[in-house]
């Protein structure tokens, strides 16, 4: 979704909640779109934004605005539902599942996180899409599947496989972190950042000297994603020791 389109949608939902007293929500937003939503709502004075994605630690989330009568803590969030797939004689991939659901004529924002665990798959989606998928999916990739509609509460969070990465930097700059995380020369890392290929906490960042901290998520287009876990140790040579993890 383009940022201006998202801004207009958020204003519409906020107005609907205030004036009509109805709950309003978007589809599932990417982490970058969530950052836009939070920043734009702060700037526009749109109070009450709630980001919700079902399972804890979900990556894709819906943006909700609630009227005064509604309690976000006890709200059922029945705008979404889960789907459980059991594969026969094969283990589908995330790409297989996403492609099969999109082939039903569904837009990407209607689908939340997908958890692939061997021959079993769970995903969350807008309720009409979840019903369609549960009724229609018979094959995912090369595997036949049995599909059933489930409550979103039964959908587990996706398991992210990572490997540890350790390196040292002279200072906590983005280009230095990109170099260490993705095993690039400093010049290559600076070029990647300046060329718009790097995102910091899900937003494109073209400042090689942007400061990094523990918890930051860094992605390099075409190479993957990683997270800074700790960066508070100092080596004997006075360099900063960085502990990180990289998605595999």
Structure, explained:
The chain is an alpha+beta fold and 248 residues long. It folds into 3 domains: 3-65, Ribosomal Protein S8, Chain: A, domain 1; 80-154, RRM (RNA recognition motif) domain (Alpha-Beta Plaits, 2-Layer Sandwich), CATH 3.30.70; 162-247, Structural Genomics Hypothetical 15.5 Kd Protein In mrcA-pckA Intergenic Region, Chain A (Roll). The protein is built from 6 helices and 14 strands. The strands form 3 sheets. Strands 9-14-13-12-10-11 form a 6-stranded antiparallel sheet. Strands 5-6-4-8-7 form a 5-stranded antiparallel sheet. A hairpin with a 2-residue loop joins strand 5 and strand 6 (120-126). Helix 1 packs across helix 2.
- Total beta strands: 14
**Architecture (CATH level 2) name of the largest domain:** Roll
Which structural category do the helix and sheet elements fall into?
alpha+beta
Shape: globular
One letter per element, helices H and strands E, the order comes to HEHEEEHEEHEEEHHEEEEE
Biggest β-sheet strands, sense, barrel: 6 strands, antiparallel
* CATH topology category name of the largest domain: Structural Genomics Hypothetical 15.5 Kd Protein In mrcA-pckA Intergenic Region, Chain A
How far apart the termini lie comes to 27 Å
Mean pLDDT: 95
Across the major sheet, the strand order is 9-14-13-12-10-11
The rounded Rg comes to 21 Å
Unreliable parts: none
Overall tally of domains = 3
Q: Could you state the CATH homologous superfamily of the largest domain?
A: RNA-binding S4 domain
User: Helical region count?
Assistant: 6
CATH class of the largest domain: Alpha Beta
